Amino acid sequence: MLLRVENIHKSYGAAEILKGVSFDMAPGQSKVIMGPSGTGKSTLLRCINHLTPPDKGRIFVDGEELTAKNLNTMRQKVAFVFQDFNLFTHLRTVENVAIGPRKLRGFGKKAALDLAYKELERVGLSDRADAYPAELSGGQQQRASIARALAMEPKLILFDEPTSALDPELTGEVVSVMNKLASEGMTMLVVSHEIGFARKAADEIIFMEGGKIIEQGPPSQIFNAPQQDRTRAFLNVIEHGDDA
Ligand SMILES: Nc1ncnc2c1ncn2[C@@H]1O[C@H](COP(=O)(O)OP(=O)(O)OP(=O)(O)O)[C@@H](O)[C@H]1O
Ligand SMILES: [Mg+2]
């Protein structure tokens, strides 16, 4: 297994947010996590790369347990794409992408820039390499942040609602980059209610509620024949356009 998530628990104060979450991902798989707001989806992603350390439970990446000691090496294997892009505003797009290889992977300046141009090409942004983030659309900024993740040549990319800060007309370009990465065999764990990506690219949908996985299965099963009433009710809302 490329990722093993084993019995993760996390509380904030007295509130238990994650109540024992476990699942595995094989190399090349894409999984989509869905579920109501406040259910612990972001907390789970943050626990997976120890942006927020779990209180209990274990994470294995590529067979190796993630601990406080190997955090930096492991974070190079697990990239994170945030909802609000998190690009450095004072750096040009290509420098945003090159900085990870330069600072964390020991690349020289030229090698880091070469890699950054290559990854920008993968996300269709070669022509905007010299622009600053403020000069990019939201969709372009998110594609730049995906290129930044790719430049770490990670084993796994975690995405936390990568399209939810975007205007609807800009989500398509980000979803199509994500579809392409999935079809190229990238392992991706994606918190998103983007049905297009979930149906087309996900091997499995994980449905969470109240800090637990309440249902999981292939998209055909989850979308066409959900077993749980709560999954069905939630999907009804997101598929029929109400605010989810
Ligand atoms: N740093 C924190 N300190 C205290 N409580 C937190 C913290 N981060 C998250 N929480 C709480 O944990 C719960 C789960 O939050 P989380 O962000 O994981 O939910 P989510 O499923 O990602 O929701 P959304 O769909 O709105 O993004 C919420 O009640 C939230 O207020
Ligand atoms: Mg969230």
Automatic annotation (TrEMBL):
Subcellular locations according to the entry: Cell membrane
Cellular compartments per GO CC: plasma membrane
Domain ABC transporter: 3-235
Naturally occurring in which organism (per UniProt): Thalassospira mesophila
Keywords in alphabetical order: Amino-acid transport, ATP-binding, Cell membrane, Membrane, Nucleotide-binding, Transport
InterPro entries according to UniProt: AAA+_ATPase, ABC_ATPase_HisP-typ, ABC_transporter-like_ATP-bd, ABC_transporter-like_CS, MetN_ABC_transporter-like, P-loop_NTPase
The protein, known as: Glutamine ABC transporter ATP-binding protein
UniProt lineage: Bacteria, Pseudomonadati, Pseudomonadota, Alphaproteobacteria, Rhodospirillales
MF-aspect GO terms: ABC-type amino acid transporter activity; ATP binding; ATP hydrolysis activity
Recorded topology in the membrane: Peripheral membrane protein
Major place of residence: membrane
Superkingdom of the organism of origin: Bacteria
Family note: Belongs to the ABC transporter superfamily.
